[in-house]
From TrEMBL:
Belongs to the SLC35F solute transporter family. It comes from Eremomyces bilateralis CBS 781.70. Its main location: membrane. This is DUF914-domain-containing protein. It comes from the Eukaryota. It is found in: Membrane. SUPFAM superfamilies: Multidrug resistance efflux transporter EmrE. It is a multi-pass membrane protein. Residues 1-51 are annotated as: Disordered.
């Protein structure tokens, strides 16, 4: 989902930023709805045969004489989406995720100050906790046999997804060892470019002009932050191997962008507990192997005492929260908004750092923060009542999607629900 390291703060070796990407979808019925799971207003219906599934659309059809009534929609207009509760929920959730990144970065910095630098192993606990919670829920809802069928049938897609998530975290940790902070932050913008390009090409997303303007404003705000760091001489000094470091940054940003789009796609078509559970299951295996290979020496050299264990617990719980909330943001908005919303993490890092690490605030920081926030508002300026929750790849009535928390299909079926 995000990364085992704060993507925008080199002092945070392991703050996973929900990496997620594309792939083929699960087998669906003729109308495109996944055949084995429907989350709808009448509860979750499981079926191993497509013909056995009953959906809210079918219920509506029985009432209206065989044809499901088309749900009412709020037409798009300037500031329309601002008047909905969903906009403010998405905005707040985005900032909660940014604060989660600040938290993981802060705990990573505290661990590094104690002499415990185990980037791969540090994130392993998060995958374990996610696996315990969400895989357990999946097995409870599906039964062990059906869960095993998901692993055998769709496991390769979730393996690719988890691989992108783990490697995005891994390469950003490597990058900061070779390049400067400023170079790494600039190249991290590539993740936003990857998200937009992949969404345009593969998911057929069409952005409004105001959305491009909003993205540019957010990037401009981030540029002001980087400039202020440069003026203060806090951009990391000389690079040990800038070419290698920049290549690692590009790899990391690419993995992040791909994984974000992949998650938005998967989470729109499958139950949330299945997607997060499978990410955790495969991520735990991949991350565990990498930690065993690359973190053995640092693990032996690490300091292990009460504060270190406390930092690891705090880091894991915050990261668990991040991975649990990110899917809701992907459903209610998009991978593009997810990425630009996280840009404020740099500002919140300074706010926390004033208290924890005695940072000094440059006068350009508030300007940068305001620019990013304005960009977030401009991004949604001409969205309709459903905002970006309505996914173009799911059909006009979102018939190929799952009806679950945060989806447009759920709101079309139940106009009174908020999320």
């Amino acid at each position: 989902m995000t990364s085992s390291q704060d993507r925008f703060s080199p002092s945070a070796p392991d703050a996973p930023v929900g990496a997620h990407g594309g792939g083929s979808a699960p087998v669906a019925r003729g109308d495109g709805v996944p055949a084995d799971e429907i989350e709808g207003p009448h509860g979750t219906v499981h079926s191993d045969k497509a013909g056995d599934v009953e959906t809210a659309d079918a219920d509506a059809a029985s009432v209206t004489g065989g044809t499901a009534a088309a749900p009412a929609r709020v037409k798009a207009g300037i500031f329309t989406y601002f008047r909905t509760r969903q906009f403010w929920i998405v905005l707040v959730l985005g900032q909660i995720l940014a604060l989660c990144l600040v938290g993981t970065g802060t705990f990573s910095n505290l661990l590094a100050n104690k002499g415990t630098n185990i980037p791969a192993f540090q994130t392993f606990f998060n995958y374990v906790l996610l696996n315990i919670v969400y895989t357990s829920i999946t097995i409870y809802r599906y039964g062990f046999k059906k869960w095993a069928n998901v692993v055998l049938k769709d496991g390769w897609k979730y393996f690719i997804f988890a691989f992108m998530d783990v490697e995005g975290n891994y390469f950003v940790v490597l990058a900061y060892g070779y390049t400067t902070i400023m170079s790494a932050q600039l190249i991290n913008f590539w993740a936003i470019v990857v998200v937009v390009l992949i969404s345009l090409i593969f998911l057929r997303v069409r952005y409004h002009l105001t959305q491009y303007v909003g993205i540019l404003l957010c990037i401009g705000g981030m540029g002001v932050l980087i400039a202020s760091d440069h003026l203060q001489g806090t951009n990391g000094g000389a690079a040990a191997d800038p070419v290698r470091g920049d290549l690692f940054c590009l790899l990391s940003a690419t993995f992040y962008g791909l994984s974000n789009v992949f998650e938005e796609f998967l989470i729109s078509r499958r139950p949330m507990y299945e997607v997060v559970g499978q990410l955790a299951f495969w991520g735990m295996l991949i991350n565990g192997v990498q930690a065993a290979i690359f973190d053995r020496a640092s693990f032996r050299a690490a300091v292990w005492d009460g504060p270190v264990f406390g930092y690891l617990v705090g880091y894991t719980l915050i990261l668990f929260t991040f991975y649990s909330l990110a899917p809701v943001v992907f459903r209610m908005s998009s991978a593009a908004f997810f990425n630009i919303g996280l840009l404020t993490a740099n500002f919140w890092t300074v706010v926390v750092g004033i208290k924890v690490f005695q940072y000094a605030v440059h006068w350009m920081y508030p300007i940068a923060f305001v620019l990013i926030v304005i960009g977030l508002f401009v991004y949604f300026m001409v969205e309709g009542g459903l905002g970006e929750a309505k996914k173009p790849w799911l059909g006009e009535n979102q018939e190929r999607g799952v009806s679950g928390l945060g989806t447009a299909k759920r709101r079309l079926e139940n106009p009174e629900v908020t999320v």
